[in-house]
Protein backbone atom coordinates (compact mmCIF):
# COMPACT_ATOMS: atom_id res chain seq x y z
CA UNK A 1 0.00 0.00 0.00
CA UNK A 2 1.52 3.37 -0.95
CA UNK A 3 1.92 5.92 1.85
CA UNK A 4 -0.97 8.31 2.28
CA UNK A 5 -0.51 11.95 1.48
CA UNK A 6 0.36 14.24 4.38
CA UNK A 7 -2.76 15.46 6.16
CA UNK A 8 -3.82 19.08 6.01
CA UNK A 9 -4.09 20.88 9.35
CA UNK A 10 -4.75 24.28 10.83
CA UNK A 11 -1.88 26.74 10.57
CA UNK A 12 0.24 26.03 13.65
CA UNK A 13 1.34 29.63 13.77
CA UNK A 14 -2.17 30.97 14.33
CA UNK A 15 -4.19 27.98 15.62
CA UNK A 16 -5.31 27.63 19.21
CA UNK A 17 -6.18 24.41 21.01
CA UNK A 18 -9.84 25.43 20.86
CA UNK A 19 -9.58 25.40 17.05
CA UNK A 20 -8.60 21.74 17.06
CA UNK A 21 -11.93 20.38 18.28
CA UNK A 22 -10.98 19.45 21.85
CA UNK A 23 -13.60 19.41 24.61
CA UNK A 24 -13.99 21.93 27.43
CA UNK A 25 -12.49 19.74 30.16
CA UNK A 26 -9.29 19.23 28.15
CA UNK A 27 -9.04 22.91 27.22
CA UNK A 28 -9.42 23.90 30.88
CA UNK A 29 -6.56 21.59 31.87
CA UNK A 30 -4.35 22.99 29.11
CA UNK A 31 -5.10 26.54 30.25
CA UNK A 32 -4.11 25.73 33.82
CA UNK A 33 -0.93 24.01 32.68
CA UNK A 34 -0.03 27.12 30.69
CA UNK A 35 -0.19 25.74 27.14
CA UNK A 36 -1.08 28.62 24.83
CA UNK A 37 -0.83 27.36 21.24
CA UNK A 38 -0.28 23.93 19.69
CA UNK A 39 3.01 22.88 18.17
CA UNK A 40 3.16 21.86 14.51
CA UNK A 41 2.77 18.14 15.24
CA UNK A 42 -0.14 18.85 17.61
CA UNK A 43 -1.98 21.13 15.17
CA UNK A 44 -1.76 18.49 12.44
CA UNK A 45 -2.33 15.34 14.50
CA UNK A 46 -5.08 16.21 16.99
CA UNK A 47 -7.87 16.96 14.45
CA UNK A 48 -6.88 13.88 12.43
CA UNK A 49 -7.09 11.56 15.44
CA UNK A 50 -10.34 13.18 16.61
CA UNK A 51 -11.76 12.40 13.18
CA UNK A 52 -11.01 8.71 13.78
CA UNK A 53 -8.21 8.28 11.23
CA UNK A 54 -4.98 6.36 11.77
CA UNK A 55 -1.80 8.45 11.84
CA UNK A 56 1.88 8.02 11.04
CA UNK A 57 3.75 10.94 12.60
CA UNK A 58 7.38 11.74 11.78
CA UNK A 59 8.80 14.09 14.39
CA UNK A 60 11.88 14.45 16.55
CA UNK A 61 11.83 14.19 20.34
CA UNK A 62 10.82 17.46 22.01
CA UNK A 63 8.26 18.52 19.37
CA UNK A 64 5.24 17.88 21.63
CA UNK A 65 4.07 14.57 20.18
CA UNK A 66 2.95 13.21 23.58
CA UNK A 67 0.18 15.81 23.77
CA UNK A 68 -0.58 15.17 20.08
CA UNK A 69 -1.86 11.66 20.86
CA UNK A 70 -2.75 11.99 24.56
CA UNK A 71 -5.24 14.87 24.21
CA UNK A 72 -7.50 13.18 21.61
CA UNK A 73 -7.52 9.96 23.64
CA UNK A 74 -8.53 11.75 26.85
CA UNK A 75 -11.15 13.74 24.99
CA UNK A 76 -12.91 10.54 23.84
CA UNK A 77 -12.53 8.28 26.90
CA UNK A 78 -15.56 6.30 28.07
CA UNK A 79 -15.19 6.44 31.85
CA UNK A 80 -17.76 3.69 32.34
CA UNK A 81 -15.59 1.11 30.57
CA UNK A 82 -13.31 -0.70 33.04
CA UNK A 83 -11.17 -2.66 30.57
CA UNK A 84 -8.30 -0.74 28.92
CA UNK A 85 -9.38 1.58 26.10
CA UNK A 86 -5.94 2.90 25.15
CA UNK A 87 -2.52 1.25 25.03
CA UNK A 88 0.69 3.23 24.50
CA UNK A 89 3.87 1.25 23.77
CA UNK A 90 7.16 2.99 24.64
CA UNK A 91 10.74 1.70 24.30
CA UNK A 92 11.88 2.51 27.87
CA UNK A 93 10.35 2.65 31.32
CA UNK A 94 11.49 6.28 31.67
CA UNK A 95 9.53 7.30 28.60
CA UNK A 96 6.54 5.22 29.76
CA UNK A 97 6.50 7.08 33.07
CA UNK A 98 6.82 10.43 31.33
CA UNK A 99 3.84 9.62 29.09
CA UNK A 100 1.80 8.49 32.13
CA UNK A 101 2.52 11.77 33.91
CA UNK A 102 1.38 13.68 30.81
CA UNK A 103 -1.90 11.74 30.63
CA UNK A 104 -2.61 12.41 34.31
CA UNK A 105 -1.86 16.10 33.86
CA UNK A 106 -4.10 16.48 30.81
CA UNK A 107 -6.93 14.56 32.55
CA UNK A 108 -6.89 16.87 35.55
CA UNK A 109 -10.54 17.87 35.09
CA UNK A 110 -11.89 14.38 34.50
CA UNK A 111 -12.88 12.35 37.55
CA UNK A 112 -11.57 8.83 38.05
CA UNK A 113 -9.34 8.53 35.00
CA UNK A 114 -6.98 5.63 35.74
CA UNK A 115 -3.62 5.50 33.94
CA UNK A 116 -1.29 2.55 34.60
CA UNK A 117 2.44 2.37 33.79
CA UNK A 118 3.54 -1.19 33.02
CA UNK A 119 7.29 -1.84 32.78
CA UNK A 120 10.00 -4.26 33.84
CA UNK A 121 11.60 -3.68 37.23
CA UNK A 122 8.31 -2.90 38.96
CA UNK A 123 6.57 -5.59 41.01
CA UNK A 124 3.73 -7.46 39.31
CA UNK A 125 1.57 -7.06 42.42
CA UNK A 126 1.07 -3.32 41.92
CA UNK A 127 0.20 -3.79 38.27
CA UNK A 128 -2.13 -6.75 38.85
CA UNK A 129 -4.06 -4.91 41.56
CA UNK A 130 -4.59 -1.89 39.31
CA UNK A 131 -5.69 -4.06 36.37
CA UNK A 132 -8.21 -5.89 38.57
CA UNK A 133 -9.68 -2.57 39.75
CA UNK A 134 -9.91 -1.34 36.17
CA UNK A 135 -7.81 1.11 34.14
CA UNK A 136 -8.62 3.28 31.16
CA UNK A 137 -5.12 3.79 29.76
CA UNK A 138 -2.09 1.47 29.88
CA UNK A 139 1.38 2.79 29.04
CA UNK A 140 4.11 0.17 28.95
CA UNK A 141 7.21 -1.40 27.49
CA UNK A 142 6.70 -4.28 25.04
CA UNK A 143 8.35 -6.95 27.19
CA UNK A 144 6.16 -6.46 30.25
CA UNK A 145 3.00 -6.05 28.13
CA UNK A 146 3.78 -9.44 26.53
CA UNK A 147 4.17 -10.95 30.02
CA UNK A 148 0.71 -9.75 31.04
CA UNK A 149 -0.85 -11.00 27.83
CA UNK A 150 0.66 -14.45 28.35
CA UNK A 151 -0.49 -14.52 31.97
CA UNK A 152 -3.97 -13.48 30.91
CA UNK A 153 -3.90 -10.46 33.23
CA UNK A 154 -4.25 -7.79 30.51
CA UNK A 155 -7.48 -7.72 28.51
CA UNK A 156 -7.15 -5.87 25.20
CA UNK A 157 -10.40 -7.17 23.70
CA UNK A 158 -12.11 -3.77 23.97
CA UNK A 159 -9.11 -1.63 23.06
CA UNK A 160 -10.02 1.45 21.00
CA UNK A 161 -6.71 3.31 20.67
CA UNK A 162 -3.14 2.06 20.23
CA UNK A 163 -0.07 4.32 20.12
CA UNK A 164 3.46 3.26 19.13
CA UNK A 165 5.70 5.99 20.57
CA UNK A 166 9.29 6.23 19.27
CA UNK A 167 8.68 3.18 17.08
CA UNK A 168 12.13 3.33 15.51
CA UNK A 169 13.72 3.11 18.96
CA UNK A 170 11.65 0.03 19.78
CA UNK A 171 12.85 -1.67 16.62
CA UNK A 172 16.49 -0.74 17.32
CA UNK A 173 16.17 -2.32 20.77
CA UNK A 174 14.93 -5.60 19.31
CA UNK A 175 11.22 -5.27 20.11
CA UNK A 176 9.89 -5.70 16.55
CA UNK A 177 8.49 -9.19 17.11
CA UNK A 178 7.03 -8.24 20.50
CA UNK A 179 5.29 -5.22 18.99
CA UNK A 180 3.78 -7.30 16.20
CA UNK A 181 2.64 -9.92 18.72
CA UNK A 182 0.86 -7.22 20.71
CA UNK A 183 -0.71 -5.74 17.58
CA UNK A 184 -2.11 -9.16 16.69
CA UNK A 185 -3.79 -9.38 20.12
CA UNK A 186 -5.76 -6.15 19.63
CA UNK A 187 -9.12 -5.62 17.88
CA UNK A 188 -9.03 -4.89 14.16
CA UNK A 189 -11.33 -1.91 14.76
CA UNK A 190 -8.86 0.02 16.92
CA UNK A 191 -7.39 3.36 15.88
CA UNK A 192 -3.58 3.39 15.60
CA UNK A 193 -1.08 6.23 15.86
CA UNK A 194 2.57 5.50 15.09
CA UNK A 195 5.25 8.07 15.92
CA UNK A 196 8.86 7.82 14.84
CA UNK A 197 11.83 10.12 14.29
CA UNK A 198 12.78 8.21 11.13
CA UNK A 199 10.99 6.01 8.59
CA UNK A 200 13.14 2.92 7.94
CA UNK A 201 11.76 0.12 5.79
CA UNK A 202 10.66 -1.91 8.84
CA UNK A 203 8.52 0.96 10.13
CA UNK A 204 7.03 1.51 6.67
CA UNK A 205 6.17 -2.19 6.43
CA UNK A 206 4.56 -2.17 9.88
CA UNK A 207 2.49 0.90 9.00
CA UNK A 208 1.33 -0.72 5.76
CA UNK A 209 0.37 -3.98 7.47
CA UNK A 210 -1.26 -2.75 10.67
CA UNK A 211 -2.60 0.75 9.99
CA UNK A 212 -5.73 1.51 7.99
CA UNK A 213 -5.23 4.24 5.38
CA UNK A 214 -3.06 6.34 7.72
CA UNK A 215 -2.53 10.06 7.37
CA UNK A 216 1.19 10.75 7.19
CA UNK A 217 2.15 13.84 9.18
CA UNK A 218 5.72 15.08 8.83
CA UNK A 219 7.24 17.78 11.02
CA UNK A 220 10.69 18.80 9.86
CA UNK A 221 13.12 20.93 11.81
CA UNK A 222 16.02 22.92 10.38
CA UNK A 223 18.37 21.19 12.81
CA UNK A 224 18.16 18.36 15.27
CA UNK A 225 19.40 20.49 18.14
CA UNK A 226 17.84 23.63 19.53
CA UNK A 227 19.27 26.92 18.30
CA UNK A 228 18.65 28.21 21.83
CA UNK A 229 21.41 25.94 23.17
CA UNK A 230 25.04 27.08 23.05
CA UNK A 231 27.22 24.07 22.21
CA UNK A 232 30.87 23.98 23.27
CA UNK A 233 33.54 21.34 23.77
CA UNK A 234 36.74 21.14 25.79
CA UNK A 235 39.70 18.96 24.80
CA UNK A 236 40.97 17.42 28.01
CA UNK A 237 42.88 14.32 29.10
CA UNK A 238 40.80 11.66 30.86
CA UNK A 239 42.70 12.15 34.13
CA UNK A 240 41.94 15.89 34.12
CA UNK A 241 38.18 15.67 33.59
CA UNK A 242 37.16 16.01 37.24
CA UNK A 243 39.33 19.09 37.79
CA UNK A 244 38.03 20.55 34.53
CA UNK A 245 34.43 20.00 35.67
CA UNK A 246 35.14 21.72 38.98
CA UNK A 247 36.60 24.78 37.25
CA UNK A 248 33.64 25.00 34.89
CA UNK A 249 31.26 24.87 37.86
CA UNK A 250 33.23 27.74 39.41
CA UNK A 251 33.00 30.12 36.44
CA UNK A 252 29.69 29.17 34.76
CA UNK A 253 26.59 30.93 36.01
CA UNK A 254 24.35 27.86 36.14
CA UNK A 255 21.02 27.19 37.82
CA UNK A 256 20.47 23.44 37.48
CA UNK A 257 22.82 21.06 35.67
CA UNK A 258 22.88 17.50 34.33
CA UNK A 259 26.29 15.81 34.01
CA UNK A 260 26.22 12.74 31.74
CA UNK A 261 28.50 9.75 32.25
CA UNK A 262 28.63 6.56 30.18
CA UNK A 263 28.40 4.08 33.03
CA UNK A 264 26.64 3.74 36.37
CA UNK A 265 29.98 3.53 38.19
CA UNK A 266 31.19 6.78 36.60
CA UNK A 267 28.00 8.65 37.58
CA UNK A 268 28.32 7.57 41.20
CA UNK A 269 32.02 8.52 41.33
CA UNK A 270 31.36 11.97 39.86
CA UNK A 271 28.48 12.67 42.27
CA UNK A 272 30.56 11.57 45.26
CA UNK A 273 33.52 13.75 44.27
CA UNK A 274 31.26 16.77 43.66
CA UNK A 275 29.67 16.38 47.09
CA UNK A 276 33.15 16.19 48.62
CA UNK A 277 33.92 19.53 46.94
CA UNK A 278 30.85 21.19 48.41
CA UNK A 279 28.31 20.86 45.59
CA UNK A 280 24.80 19.48 46.03
CA UNK A 281 24.90 16.55 43.59
CA UNK A 282 23.24 13.16 43.22
CA UNK A 283 23.43 10.30 40.71
CA UNK A 284 20.61 8.49 38.93
CA UNK A 285 21.19 5.35 36.89
CA UNK A 286 19.72 1.93 36.26
CA UNK A 287 20.49 0.75 39.80
CA UNK A 288 18.46 3.54 41.41
CA UNK A 289 14.98 2.44 42.49
CA UNK A 290 12.12 4.34 40.89
CA UNK A 291 10.90 6.02 44.13
CA UNK A 292 14.43 7.29 44.80
CA UNK A 293 14.74 8.50 41.21
CA UNK A 294 11.49 10.46 41.49
CA UNK A 295 12.60 11.95 44.82
CA UNK A 296 15.93 13.05 43.32
CA UNK A 297 14.29 14.62 40.26
CA UNK A 298 11.83 16.49 42.50
CA UNK A 299 14.77 17.82 44.54
CA UNK A 300 16.32 19.10 41.31
CA UNK A 301 13.05 20.77 40.36
CA UNK A 302 12.63 22.44 43.77
CA UNK A 303 16.20 23.70 44.01
CA UNK A 304 17.27 21.41 46.87
CA UNK A 305 19.65 19.77 44.40
CA UNK A 306 21.78 21.61 41.83
CA UNK A 307 23.58 18.88 39.89
CA UNK A 308 22.20 15.60 38.59
CA UNK A 309 24.76 13.04 37.36
CA UNK A 310 23.04 10.57 35.05
CA UNK A 311 23.34 7.88 32.42
CA UNK A 312 21.46 8.24 29.13
CA UNK A 313 18.67 5.81 30.01
CA UNK A 314 18.09 7.26 33.48
CA UNK A 315 17.77 10.83 32.15
CA UNK A 316 15.53 10.03 29.20
CA UNK A 317 12.28 11.98 29.40
CA UNK A 318 13.53 14.49 31.99
CA UNK A 319 12.09 17.97 31.53
CA UNK A 320 13.14 20.21 34.42
CA UNK A 321 12.76 23.90 33.73
CA UNK A 322 15.73 25.04 35.82
CA UNK A 323 18.28 22.92 33.91
CA UNK A 324 20.47 25.60 32.35
CA UNK A 325 23.53 23.46 31.59
CA UNK A 326 24.29 19.98 30.29
CA UNK A 327 27.84 18.65 30.61
CA UNK A 328 28.88 15.53 28.69
CA UNK A 329 31.57 14.24 31.05
CA UNK A 330 31.84 11.41 28.52
CA UNK A 331 30.95 12.51 25.00
CA UNK A 332 28.42 10.09 23.44
CA UNK A 333 29.55 7.93 20.55
CA UNK A 334 26.46 8.58 18.41
CA UNK A 335 24.72 11.78 17.35
CA UNK A 336 21.27 10.65 18.48
CA UNK A 337 22.39 10.25 22.09
CA UNK A 338 24.04 13.66 21.89
CA UNK A 339 20.80 15.26 20.68
CA UNK A 340 18.77 13.59 23.43
CA UNK A 341 21.26 14.70 26.08
CA UNK A 342 21.51 18.36 25.21
CA UNK A 343 17.77 18.40 24.63
CA UNK A 344 17.41 18.44 28.44
CA UNK A 345 18.24 22.17 28.27
CA UNK A 346 17.17 24.94 25.89
CA UNK A 347 13.58 23.63 25.82
CA UNK A 348 10.34 25.52 25.25
CA UNK A 349 12.10 28.69 24.15
CA UNK A 350 14.55 28.79 27.04
CA UNK A 351 18.28 29.25 26.47
CA UNK A 352 20.78 26.63 27.56
CA UNK A 353 24.43 25.62 27.49
CA UNK A 354 25.92 22.27 26.50
CA UNK A 355 29.59 21.49 27.19
CA UNK A 356 31.26 18.24 26.08
CA UNK A 357 34.56 16.87 27.36
CA UNK A 358 36.60 15.38 24.51
CA UNK A 359 39.85 13.47 24.88
CA UNK A 360 42.42 13.99 22.10
CA UNK A 361 41.49 10.63 20.57
CA UNK A 362 37.79 11.60 20.47
CA UNK A 363 38.08 14.66 18.25
CA UNK A 364 36.51 12.68 15.41
CA UNK A 365 33.30 12.37 17.42
CA UNK A 366 32.95 16.16 17.40
CA UNK A 367 33.09 16.20 13.59
CA UNK A 368 30.55 13.37 13.42
CA UNK A 369 28.14 15.24 15.71
CA UNK A 370 28.58 18.48 13.73
CA UNK A 371 27.77 16.70 10.46
CA UNK A 372 24.72 14.95 11.91
CA UNK A 373 23.26 18.01 13.65
CA UNK A 374 24.39 20.55 11.04
CA UNK A 375 25.62 22.81 13.80
CA UNK A 376 29.14 23.75 14.80
CA UNK A 377 30.48 23.09 18.27
CA UNK A 378 32.75 25.86 19.59
CA UNK A 379 36.04 24.80 21.16
CA UNK A 380 36.59 26.35 24.57
CA UNK A 381 39.63 26.58 26.82
CA UNK A 382 39.90 25.41 30.39
CA UNK A 383 39.06 28.31 32.73
CA UNK A 384 42.31 29.71 34.09
CA UNK A 385 43.24 30.18 37.72
CA UNK A 386 42.78 33.94 37.29
CA UNK A 387 39.23 33.45 35.92
CA UNK A 388 38.35 31.18 38.83
CA UNK A 389 39.77 33.63 41.35
CA UNK A 390 37.88 36.58 39.83
CA UNK A 391 34.66 34.56 40.13
CA UNK A 392 35.41 33.65 43.75
CA UNK A 393 36.15 37.28 44.64
CA UNK A 394 32.93 38.43 43.01
CA UNK A 395 30.94 35.89 45.00
CA UNK A 396 32.72 36.92 48.18
CA UNK A 397 31.83 40.55 47.42
CA UNK A 398 28.22 39.51 46.91
CA UNK A 399 28.15 37.82 50.31
CA UNK A 400 29.50 40.97 51.96
CA UNK A 401 26.94 43.14 50.15
CA UNK A 402 24.13 40.83 51.21
CA UNK A 403 25.30 40.91 54.83
CA UNK A 404 25.48 44.72 54.82
CA UNK A 405 21.82 44.73 53.86
CA UNK A 406 20.92 43.28 57.27
CA UNK A 407 21.14 46.60 59.15
CA UNK A 408 20.15 45.34 62.61
CA UNK A 409 22.70 42.55 62.67
CA UNK A 410 25.42 44.80 61.24
CA UNK A 411 24.78 47.35 64.02
CA UNK A 412 25.18 44.68 66.70
CA UNK A 413 28.45 43.38 65.28
CA UNK A 414 29.74 46.93 64.74
CA UNK A 415 29.70 47.43 68.53
CA UNK A 416 31.51 44.12 69.03
CA UNK A 417 34.24 45.04 66.53
CA UNK A 418 34.62 48.53 68.03
CA UNK A 419 35.03 46.94 71.49
CA UNK A 420 37.79 44.67 70.15
CA UNK A 421 39.58 47.59 68.42
CA UNK A 422 39.57 49.69 71.61
CA UNK A 423 40.89 46.93 73.85
CA UNK A 424 43.48 45.44 71.49
CA UNK A 425 44.60 48.49 69.52
CA UNK A 426 44.15 46.69 66.17
CA UNK A 427 43.07 48.50 62.96
CA UNK A 428 39.50 47.77 61.91
CA UNK A 429 40.65 46.50 58.51
CA UNK A 430 42.75 43.82 60.22
CA UNK A 431 39.76 42.76 62.33
CA UNK A 432 37.66 42.50 59.16
CA UNK A 433 40.37 40.36 57.54
CA UNK A 434 40.49 38.10 60.60
CA UNK A 435 36.69 37.69 60.52
CA UNK A 436 36.93 36.75 56.84
CA UNK A 437 39.40 34.01 57.76
CA UNK A 438 36.95 32.71 60.37
CA UNK A 439 34.11 32.73 57.84
CA UNK A 440 36.15 31.07 55.08
CA UNK A 441 37.43 28.21 57.20
CA UNK A 442 40.30 25.98 56.09
CA UNK A 443 39.48 26.18 52.38
CA UNK A 444 41.59 28.85 50.62
CA UNK A 445 39.52 31.61 49.03
CA UNK A 446 41.83 31.89 45.99
CA UNK A 447 43.68 29.29 43.96
CA UNK A 448 47.46 29.39 43.78
CA UNK A 449 48.67 30.75 40.42
CA UNK A 450 49.98 28.20 37.93
CA UNK A 451 53.04 29.40 36.02
CA UNK A 452 52.48 26.69 33.38
CA UNK A 453 49.65 24.28 32.62
CA UNK A 454 50.08 20.95 34.33
CA UNK A 455 50.31 18.30 31.63
CA UNK A 456 49.80 14.62 32.24
CA UNK A 457 52.26 12.27 30.49
CA UNK A 458 50.79 10.93 27.26
CA UNK A 459 49.96 7.26 27.30
CA UNK A 460 49.63 4.83 24.46
CA UNK A 461 45.94 4.43 25.26
CA UNK A 462 43.41 6.39 27.31
CA UNK A 463 43.30 4.49 30.60
CA UNK A 464 39.61 4.95 31.05
CA UNK A 465 37.30 2.45 32.74
CA UNK A 466 34.70 2.93 30.00
CA UNK A 467 36.37 2.77 26.59
CA UNK A 468 34.02 3.94 23.86
CA UNK A 469 34.76 0.96 21.59
CA UNK A 470 33.33 -1.65 23.97
CA UNK A 471 29.93 -1.53 22.34
CA UNK A 472 31.50 -2.19 18.95
CA UNK A 473 33.35 -5.18 20.40
CA UNK A 474 30.14 -6.35 22.01
CA UNK A 475 28.54 -6.60 18.60
CA UNK A 476 31.25 -8.91 17.18
CA UNK A 477 31.00 -12.63 17.88
CA UNK A 478 34.14 -13.92 19.57
CA UNK A 479 36.07 -16.99 18.49
CA UNK A 480 34.38 -20.24 19.24
CA UNK A 481 36.83 -21.21 22.00
CA UNK A 482 35.95 -20.06 25.52
CA UNK A 483 38.03 -17.36 27.13
CA UNK A 484 37.93 -15.80 30.53
CA UNK A 485 35.88 -12.54 30.70
CA UNK A 486 37.84 -9.39 31.25
CA UNK A 487 38.34 -8.03 34.73
CA UNK A 488 35.16 -7.01 36.52
CA UNK A 489 32.92 -8.98 34.13
CA UNK A 490 31.26 -12.37 34.25
CA UNK A 491 29.85 -14.55 31.48
CA UNK A 492 26.09 -15.22 31.46
CA UNK A 493 24.10 -17.65 29.34
CA UNK A 494 20.76 -16.73 27.77
CA UNK A 495 18.35 -19.17 26.15
CA UNK A 496 18.16 -17.60 22.68
CA UNK A 497 20.56 -18.07 19.81
CA UNK A 498 20.86 -18.24 16.04
CA UNK A 499 17.81 -20.47 15.73
CA UNK A 500 15.75 -17.61 17.17
CA UNK A 501 17.48 -15.29 14.67
CA UNK A 502 18.71 -12.96 17.39
CA UNK A 503 21.37 -10.36 16.75
CA UNK A 504 23.73 -8.64 19.22
CA UNK A 505 21.77 -5.38 18.98
CA UNK A 506 18.59 -7.18 20.09
CA UNK A 507 20.37 -8.67 23.10
CA UNK A 508 21.89 -5.32 24.06
CA UNK A 509 18.58 -3.48 23.56
CA UNK A 510 16.47 -5.91 25.58
CA UNK A 511 18.90 -6.28 28.50
CA UNK A 512 19.62 -2.55 28.61
CA UNK A 513 15.93 -1.67 28.74
CA UNK A 514 14.79 -4.22 31.34
CA UNK A 515 17.92 -4.14 33.50
CA UNK A 516 18.82 -0.47 33.24
CA UNK A 517 22.19 -1.36 31.68
CA UNK A 518 24.29 0.83 29.39
CA UNK A 519 26.44 0.03 26.38
CA UNK A 520 29.64 -0.13 28.41
CA UNK A 521 28.05 -2.71 30.73
CA UNK A 522 28.37 -5.21 27.84
CA UNK A 523 31.46 -7.13 26.92
CA UNK A 524 31.72 -9.83 24.27
CA UNK A 525 28.55 -11.43 22.91
CA UNK A 526 28.89 -14.94 21.44
CA UNK A 527 25.73 -16.20 19.69
CA UNK A 528 25.49 -20.01 19.52
CA UNK A 529 22.84 -22.09 17.73
CA UNK A 530 20.59 -22.57 20.79
CA UNK A 531 21.91 -20.04 23.30
CA UNK A 532 24.17 -17.01 23.61
CA UNK A 533 26.95 -15.99 25.98
CA UNK A 534 27.02 -12.39 27.18
CA UNK A 535 29.66 -10.67 29.29
CA UNK A 536 28.05 -8.44 31.93
CA UNK A 537 29.37 -6.75 35.09
CA UNK A 538 30.16 -9.35 37.76
CA UNK A 539 28.63 -7.20 40.50
CA UNK A 540 25.08 -7.02 39.13
CA UNK A 541 22.61 -6.47 41.97
CA UNK A 542 20.02 -9.08 42.88
CA UNK A 543 17.26 -6.70 41.80
CA UNK A 544 18.86 -6.28 38.38
CA UNK A 545 19.23 -10.05 37.97
CA UNK A 546 15.57 -10.53 38.87
CA UNK A 547 14.52 -7.95 36.28
CA UNK A 548 16.72 -9.54 33.63
CA UNK A 549 15.28 -12.98 34.42
CA UNK A 550 11.87 -11.66 33.27
CA UNK A 551 13.29 -10.34 29.99
CA UNK A 552 12.13 -11.70 26.65
CA UNK A 553 13.81 -11.54 23.27
CA UNK A 554 11.75 -12.34 20.17
CA UNK A 555 8.97 -13.37 22.53
CA UNK A 556 11.06 -15.99 24.37
CA UNK A 557 12.05 -15.84 28.05
CA UNK A 558 15.84 -15.64 28.04
CA UNK A 559 16.44 -17.60 31.29
CA UNK A 560 19.55 -15.56 32.16
CA UNK A 561 21.98 -17.48 34.37
CA UNK A 562 25.74 -17.53 35.08
CA UNK A 563 27.64 -19.63 32.54
CA UNK A 564 29.44 -22.61 34.03
CA UNK A 565 31.28 -23.54 30.86
CA UNK A 566 29.44 -26.86 30.70
CA UNK A 567 26.40 -27.80 28.61
CA UNK A 568 23.17 -27.12 30.50
CA UNK A 569 20.00 -29.06 29.97
CA UNK A 570 16.84 -26.99 30.29
CA UNK A 571 14.44 -29.14 32.28
CA UNK A 572 10.85 -28.19 31.63
CA UNK A 573 7.74 -29.79 30.24
CA UNK A 574 6.20 -28.99 26.88
CA UNK A 575 4.11 -26.07 28.10
CA UNK A 576 6.26 -24.89 31.00
CA UNK A 577 8.60 -21.94 30.82
CA UNK A 578 12.28 -22.47 31.76
CA UNK A 579 13.24 -21.82 35.36
CA UNK A 580 14.20 -18.29 36.31
CA UNK A 581 16.54 -16.93 38.95
CA UNK A 582 13.76 -16.83 41.53
CA UNK A 583 13.07 -20.57 40.91
CA UNK A 584 16.62 -21.49 41.81
CA UNK A 585 17.06 -19.33 44.90
CA UNK A 586 14.34 -18.63 47.48
CA UNK A 587 13.32 -14.98 47.69
CA UNK A 588 13.53 -13.08 50.91
CA UNK A 589 10.24 -12.38 52.66
CA UNK A 590 10.94 -8.71 52.05
CA UNK A 591 10.79 -9.13 48.28
CA UNK A 592 8.10 -7.34 46.35
CA UNK A 593 4.81 -9.10 45.78
CA UNK A 594 4.89 -10.45 42.24
TrEMBL record:
Bias kind Basic and acidic residues: ranges: 452-485, 560-594
EC number: 3.6.4.13
Superkingdom, taxonomy of origin: Bacteria
Record carries keyword Transmembrane: no
Keywords annotated in UniProt: ATP-binding, Cytoplasm, Helicase, Hydrolase, Nucleotide-binding, RNA-binding, Stress response
Location in the cell: Cytoplasm
Gene Ontology MF terms in the entry: helicase activity
Pfam family, one: Helicase_C
Presence of the UniProt keyword Transport in the record: no
Residue ranges of the region described as Disordered: 446-485, 559-594
InterPro entries assigned to the protein according to its UniProt record, in alphabetical order: CsdA_RRM (IPR034415), DbpA/CsdA_RNA-bd_dom (IPR005580), DEAD/DEAH_box_helicase_dom (IPR011545), DEAD/DEAH_RhlB (IPR044742), DEAD_box_RNA_helicases (IPR050547), DeaD_dimer (IPR057325), DEAD_helicase_DeaD (IPR028618), Helicase_ATP-bd (IPR014001)
Residue ranges of domain Helicase C-terminal in the record: 244-389
Domain DEAD-box RNA helicase Q, residue spans: 15-43
Catalytic activity: ATP + H2O = ADP + phosphate + H(+)
Domain (Helicase ATP-binding) ranges: 46-217
Motif (Q motif): 15-43
CDD domains attached to this UniProt entry: DEADc (cd00268), RRM_EcCsdA_like (cd12499), SF2_C_DEAD (cd18787)
Membership in a protein family: Belongs to the DEAD box helicase family. DeaD/CsdA subfamily.
Function (record text): DEAD-box RNA helicase involved in various cellular processes at low temperature, including ribosome biogenesis, mRNA degradation and translation initiation.
Descriptive protein name: ATP-dependent RNA helicase DeaD
Native source organism of the sequence: Microbacterium rhizosphaerae
Name of the coding gene: deaD
Amino acid sequence: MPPAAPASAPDAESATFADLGLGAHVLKALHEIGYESPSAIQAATIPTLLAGRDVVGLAQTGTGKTAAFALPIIDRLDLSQKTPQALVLAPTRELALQVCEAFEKYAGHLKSVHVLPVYGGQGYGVQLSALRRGVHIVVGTPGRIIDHLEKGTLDLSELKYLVLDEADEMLKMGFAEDVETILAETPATKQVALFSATMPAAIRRMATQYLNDPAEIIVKGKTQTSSKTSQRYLVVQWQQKMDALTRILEVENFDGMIVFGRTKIVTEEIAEKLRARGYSAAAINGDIAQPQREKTVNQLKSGKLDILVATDVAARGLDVERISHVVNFDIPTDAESYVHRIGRTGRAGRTGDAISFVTPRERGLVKMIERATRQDLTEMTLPSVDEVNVTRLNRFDDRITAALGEADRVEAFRDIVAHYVRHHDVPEVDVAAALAIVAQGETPLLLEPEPEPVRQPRRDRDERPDRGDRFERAGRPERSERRAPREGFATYRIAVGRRQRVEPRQIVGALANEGGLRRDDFGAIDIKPDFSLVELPANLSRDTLDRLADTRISGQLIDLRPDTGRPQRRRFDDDRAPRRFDDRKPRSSARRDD
